[in-house]
Give the backbone structure.
Amino acid sequence: MAVHFIRLIIIMAMGLGAMYMLHLLAQDWNKIRRPIPPAVTRLLTGASKNLDNFITRGKRDLQGQRSQTKRLKTQQGNEIKRINSTAVTIDWKRILSRDPFECLQSLVCQLLSGAEKNSHEALLMCDFLEENISVAPAKIGRAFSRGLVYRGRTERCYEEYPFCWYSAKTMLKMLKWFSDTVQN
C-alpha cells in the first residue's frame, strides 16, 4: 500500500513539474505567436516595394530575402508573415533548468516529426524554431534534429524522451491556456 502511495506522489510531482515548465514556456509563447503588427508592415513597405528585402529580422540572418518571404498558411487559408525574431528573446536556459522531464525537447521533437501539422500554433512554433535554432541551446538543437529524422514517426519521440508523457496536442493546448492567462 505504501509503495502505491509513493508512486502516486512521484507521478503527481512529475505532472506538476511538467506543468510548471509549460507555464514558463507559455510566458515566452506570447512573444512567439505574435506576428509583426500590420501597421508596422504597412509603414515599412509603404516607403518602397523592395524595402522588406533589405530588412534583417535576426541577428545572423544570412538567408535574408528567402526567410522574409516565407509565409505560414492557417486552416482558413489566410497568410501570416514570419514573426519578428529581433523582438523575441526566449530564456531557453531557464526553461531547460526547470524541465527535468524534457517536455520541451519532446514537444520540439514531436512537432518537427509531423505531429499537429494542421495546428496554427504548431506551425508558428516550428517556424520560430527553424529561424532561431542557431541561438538555441544544444539540447533544443538535438530535439530539432531528432524531430527531422523521425519525420512521420512521432512515436519515436516518446521513446527518445520517455519521462514526458504529454503529446504535442496536449502540450500545445496547455501552452495556449497558460498564455491566455499570463498577463505581460
Summary: The chain has ten helices and two strands. The chain has one domain: 2-181.
